[in-house]
Write a structure and sequence with these properties.
Number of domains: 1
Number of strands: 9
Enzyme class: transferase
CATH superfamily: P-loop containing nucleotide triphosphate hydrolases
Bound molecules: adenosine-3'-5'-diphosphate
Strand content: 5-15%
Oligomer: single chain
Helix content: 40-55%
Protein name: Sulfotransferase
Distance between the termini: 41 Å
Family: Belongs to the sulfotransferase 1 family.
Pfam families: Sulfotransfer_1
GO molecular function: sulfotransferase activity
CATH architecture: 3-Layer(aba) Sandwich
Mean pLDDT: 86
């Protein structure tokens, strides 16, 4: 990892075992990482480290989310919406041959990556504008350059119960591939309730973007996974308007919105070879991104006491925010 890259990280998620791989010239990086606050996240020798900052162009669009809230879907929709004139023929649309994470790189995983990252580095120099990026970085930790530029942010939020269940299932699949012990839902849920999971607590993450979307509606569009599922048409239109590329009457009559919704539907994406096979990060299979996509699946996983506990936290944290789940 080069020191210049480190200065661009907001939150650096590392594996302590990999710190051993740092060479002599990286000793400053290693020193820095070791000086950061860290939290165990349920997998042996793996910790979260907290850090700061990064950059953008005014025309950039950032798809922001907590992990497992519908990032893959929103990336696909946003890509299809902004590129609809470039790829008007659905027969050879890039979303049929690439996973949406390969088309919309993650700032922290594919752009500002270190040499020991699990994810492939993305070449942003040749990206066509508007450039689309994804991030799980909390709003408060985004660099000033992103907050102060005119680039737009679309945030997707999902019911915290379903988000958690999706996250737990996903983490266990990854753990298996690394031969790590199973992460029990009891232990992991306790950590989640304390706000210890990828990119921090659900409530701080959601409230950070929600508050900014209220203060600056031109800058941040706040969406809910459940709304997008229920009424795709009006939300796809909302995204296009927010990105200053509204659908024309002609496009609407020609079914362009419906085509985009179908192209990005769970059923369609899950069955594509591009999403069924291969990895999008080392030992992280693409098919892990497509599980059930159901609203309310948490009922099959969480005990009544877990539901009571998280409901109380959610009620307390979101009281007065206008947001309900
Ligand atoms: P489940 O685990 O509940 O099935 P992310 O993309 O942020 O990692 O979120 C993954 C969740 O979104 C998973 O939820 C996954 O099944 C669901 N998902 C993936 N693609 C989707 C799509 N096209 N439409 C709706 N949900 C989708």
């Amino acid at each position: 990892m080069a020191s210049k890259d480190l200065t661009n990280f907001t939150e650096y998620q590392s594996k302590d075992v990999q710190l051993e791989a740092f060479g002599e010239e990286d000793s400053k990086c290693k020193e820095l990482i070791l000086s950061l606050p860290k939290e165990y996240y349920g997998v042996p020798n793996h910790y979260f480290y907290f850090f700061q900052g990064f950059w953008p162009k005014d025309s950039d669009v950032v798809v922001a989310s907590m992990p497992k809230t519908g990032t893959t879907w929103l990336k696909a929709l946003t890509f299809a919406i902004v590129n609809r004139n470039r790829f008007s023929s659905l027969e050879n649309h890039p979303l049929l041959t690439s996973n949406s994470h390969e088309l919309v790189p993650s700032l922290e995983s594919n752009v500002y990556v270190d040499t020991i990252s699990q994810f492939p580095k993305f070449d942003i120099l040749n990206m066509i504008e508007p450039r689309l990026f994804g991030t799980h970085i909390p709003f408060a930790s985004l660099a000033k350059s992103i907050k102060e530029s005119n680039c737009k942010i679309i945030y997707i939020c999902r019911n915290p119960f379903d988000t958690y269940v999706s996250y737990w299932n996903f983490m266990n699949k990854i753990s298996l591939n690394f031969d790590f012990p199973t992460i029990t839902i009891e232990d992991d849920f306790e950590r989640y309730c304390k706000g210890i999971c990828h990119v921090g607590s659900f409530w701080d993450h959601v409230l950070g973007y929600l508050n900014e979307s209220i203060a600056r509606p031109d800058k941040v569009l706040f969406m809910k996974y459940e709304d997008l599922k229920e009424n795709g048409n009006s939300h796809v239109k909302r995204i296009a308007e927010f990105l200053d590329c509204p659908f024309t009457q002609e496009e609407e009559s020609n079914g362009v919105i419906e085509n985009i919704i179908n192209l990005c539907s769970f059923k369609k994406m899950k069955e594509l070879e591009a999403n069924k096979f291969g990895e999008f990060g080392r030992k992280i299979e693409k098919n892990y991104l497509f599980r059930k996509a159901e609203v309310g699946d948490w009922i099959n996983y969480l005990s009544p006491s877990m539901v009571e506990k998280l409901s109380k936290i959610i009620e307390e944290k979101f009281s007065g925010s206008g947001l309900s789940f």
